[in-house]
Amino acid sequence: MPRSTPTRPRSVDRRTVAFAVLTLVAFGVAASARALVDATTAAAASPARYATGAPGTWDGFDTANVIAAVGASAAGAGVLLFGAALVSAVSRRAGPRLPSVIGVVTLAMVVGAVVAGIASGEQTDFDAAARWAILRTALAGLAVASLPALCLAALRTRARRTG
Q: Model-level pTM?
């Protein structure tokens, strides 16, 4: 009678990998959209905050706005997928140090968001302030998205210790 060899449990399941890949794709789309917006506004030879066309006509700034909206949507989806990937990883397999690791990374993102917010407020150039504000928003969003996974990991660790 043939024996089946026991399969070793995977450290990361397929669902977590799928969420992670989708997260990277979403952030890649957002970064590409940002580069396209910069290229589109640079081709117009004026800053993105000034429009030179008559109202009601489609121009490069309208194109840049559509691209920016797609990029912002992709970034938002990336943040949500990031949180889902963390929750999936924690619910599948939570090691004893995982809450500490997630907590330290979340705290680092919060501190980074605060520093970026302060740096954004000190800028005199609109473009530099906007770039710092984008970084602040991204770090704050990722920190908030990691909170459910942090809470789940802490609860599982507490249950394991008291259980």
A: 0.78
